[in-house]
Amino acid sequence: MGFQERVFSGVQPTGNLHLGNYLGAIKRFVELQDRYDCIYCVVDMHAITVWQDPAELPRTIREVTAAFIACGIDPAKHIVFNQSQVAEHAELAWIFNCVARLGWLNRMTQFKEKAGKDRENASVGLYAYPALMAADILLYRATHVPVGEDQKQHLELSRDIAQKFNNDFADSIRSHGFADGQLFPQPEPLITGPATRVMSLRDGTKKMSKSDPSDYSRINLTDDADTIAQKIRKAKTDPEALPSEEKGLETRPEADNLVGIYAALSGRTKTDVLREFGGGQFSSFKNSLVELCVARLAPIAAEMKRLVADPSHVDRILIDGADRARAIAHETMKVTKDVVGFVRKR
Ligand code: ATP
Ligand code: MG
After folding, report:
1. CA–CA separation, 256 vs 245, rounded Å?
2. Does the CB atom of residue 147 touch ligand 1 within 6 A?
3. Distance 168 CA to ligand 1 centre (A)
């Protein structure tokens, strides 16, 4: 089918970026730049689905932008912007709210986890989040979406929305010049590598997350060397030595997590890492992990610090990116409105 290949992904400005965001998402955004046209978005409209302090939000938006650039995303060759500057995201999300079914959204585990017990008090936005995410992707007719494991279900929902839209409006889509009846592609998730789900350092069954109240559960991209060392040394482990083969990690979530982090940071496989460290004690493995983590993260933290010191430079990047994103989004919205049957100025 004739969709131009394009990558889209987003990160929420909801707090401190951590190693999970880096290994599961941003590091992979960087790698995809050579092969695809990429659009990377700071999804501030997603962020406000839970309360964000307006005095803090601008700083976090700029910090995520700085992280993108510090990690190696090129905002001149690709597009980097914040979602709220392109109103078309909200516009298409509304149409998708009318395509997505309640039954589909009721199955979303992220809503259940984030809303917790007090579901009645969760925002409507938190519930409708996946329809906005589908709009983010499909506004650019993106074909590939690099995300961590936790976003797999949302991406499947985006595919369902694209398909239902194409089906519901098939005749109209054809009559507007799309002979194959496909206005939107089915975006493919790109979930690969040894760290698609980095776990909390305190609990190997919970994902590392910005919103975890314990700072010891995660390594932040801006942590200094001493903090990284302390967090890794305190990370939960079990009393046994490291296994020599990957199979031996299956029932040991904490060990599996630390080995996965080492593998992802060093660009090796878990098997390869265990060949080196298998049979050894956690203490010495943890020392090597601290060294590796600091070596990888320190230059990123330094560059982020340099960038956020000049907010107007960061803002210019976002404004320029938003202008280029809007040009694409605007074209998609025009044809989408025609397909739906809305009247508009020609
Ligand atoms: P929040 O707790 O506010 O949802 P988050 O840490 O989940 O924050 P997001 O902005 O929701 O961060 O996600 C940004 C990207 O990082 C997504 O692609 C997501 O899949 C990925 N990601 C988030 N946490 C992890 C993790 N622990 N391991 C791997 N990837 C992750
Ligand atoms: Mg998340």
Report:
1. 11
2. yes
3. 32
